[in-house]
Amino acid sequence: xxxxxxxxxxxxxxxxxxxxxxxxxxxxxxxxxxxxxxxxxxxxxxxxxxxxxxxxxxxxxxxxxxxxxxxxxxxxxxxxxxxxxxxxxxxxxxxxxxxxxxxxxxxxxxxxxxxxxxxxxxxxxxxxxxxxxxxxxxxxxxxxxxxxxxxxxxxxxxxxxxxxxxxxxxxxxxxxxxxxxxxxxxxxxxxxxxxxxxxxxxxxxxxxxxxxxxxxxxxxxxxxxxxxxxxxxxxxxxxxxxxxxxxxxxxxxxxxxxxxxxxxxxxxxxxxxxxxxxxxxxxxxxxxxxxxxxxxxxxxxxxxxxxxxxxxxxxxxxxxxxxxxxxxxxxxxxxxxxxxxxxxxxxxxxxxxxx
Length: 355
Hints:
alpha/beta, Chloramphenicol Acetyltransferase, 2 domains, three-stranded mixed β-sheet, 11 strands, Plant_Fungal_Acyltransferase
């Protein structure tokens, strides 16, 4: 276990909240969360959770939280934050009683991997140490927030129905949800932004996204109050030439098939695979959704609800965040090298007729 479990710090700013402008826009200057503690030595473990409170000259303040995924997933972090907020009141009970029984997600003995899990792979470790993956390179990145109004989301949903009558009966049951159409669009733009020429046409592009397993485990069931890491990765993959030529409905269908595979037995197989393969890495591009979880802006404190809640911009080009935009629609936070971002933006805008 790490030597340091929790860490809290305080900071102040010479600006007021009003000086910051649109809080939803990615800004590297918003250093409101301590992600790495530089004062720890090379042999020290980083804490599992850090809090930083930054006060502004107008009396406003920001609470920045950085967590290790071992401790919480998005639902667990939201649960923890709601409970934390209750402690700021004089006599308010906890919002929910968390379940911390990690044995509920223990591997079977002996482990039994019953499915292929191509969403993971075990890298070959060189003798010099762990590998350096693509996402760790120090590329210069551009950060952009792409906004999707409710009208644009409805357009995507109608587009997903365009080829419904010409698809086979086996593909007619896919779910046309807000998440699925947004994920399909992001995947398409990201894949084509990497498409150089026909030499790439047979290469595989993959999109990974989290699936909550609290409602999917049956024997034994996992309580909805489970406060830990209870998500697994689902994957959509296709060749670049397919993504380039497919109708949008096919992209949505492939995205929707991932969560459909996540059954009780599939989850147990994933846990057993991870028990056997201690070292692993995810592939390609990861989409993380804050649409239904991590609604920290809904947490009620004695002084009210936060003005804004969202992720701190960090140097990861392999992760895209999908965020709610109050009552206006959805925001998509993308970070990519300049040339890829230019291409991504062009494909994103060209997809809409009135762009």
